[in-house]
Amino acid sequence: MTPDQVKLVQESFAKVAPISEQAAVIFYDRLFEVAPAVKAMFPADMSEQRRKLMATLAVVVNGLSNLPSILPAASALAKRHVDYGARPEHYPVVGGALLWTLETGLGDAWTPDVAAAWTAAYGTLSGYMISEAYGGAQAAE
């Protein structure tokens, strides 16, 4: 990621943060719409899960300018996700739901440059997480 992309991700997330509860609802509604099978991996009461999602996103977004500072937490999170039943093929689906949520929430502020920055950020982190959780061979699939 370039410094400009990091800045775009951070600035656009700052616009979503005030509506984080609504954004989390939109994200999970979209995820369960496009991948209904993953719903079984989540609790019936999603309120805590939605809070955790937005808190984690905030940490990641704030840490993008110093990526090594967030990699240990990303590694631990990836390994926990294995225990929940997450597979490498779930990562692109989650990424799609995240980008869709951001596009929906940001409206006109979702520009091609912002989309490219978020795509780069998600690609960087999801690739790392897949590698950490499943090994390098799985990350390429």
Automatic annotation (TrEMBL):
Keywords: Heme, Iron, Metal-binding, Oxygen transport, Receptor, Transport
Coiled coil: none
InterPro entries: Globin, Globin-like_sf, Globin/Proto
Lineage top rank: taxon: Bacteria
Globin domain ranges (all copies): 1-134
SUPFAM superfamilies: Globin-like
Family from the record: Belongs to the globin family.
PANTHER family on file: FLAVOHEMOPROTEIN
Protein name: Hemin receptor
Species in which this protein is naturally found: Bradyrhizobium jicamae
